[in-house]
Design brief:
Blueprint lengths: L1 H53 L1
Length: 55
């Protein structure tokens, strides 16, 4: 019975690790997208500011 318990716990550990990795990937993707959006908006505002200044 102890062998079976070990196997099931090992399977659960692997599943938990996979879930953790998936969650981490989702979080990283969200942060990256937010960074890209903020950077693009900042560059756009800077571009518009320089354009209006030159005009």
């Amino acid at each position: 019975s102890s062998c079976v318990d070990r196997f099931t716990s090992a399977d659960n550990d692997e599943l938990n690790v996979e879930l953790l990795i998936k969650n981490l990937k989702i979080i990283i993707m969200k942060k990256l997208s937010i960074l890209c959006i903020t950077r693009s908006s900042a560059s756009l505002s800077a571009f518009s500011a320089t354009a209006s200044f030159s005009a």
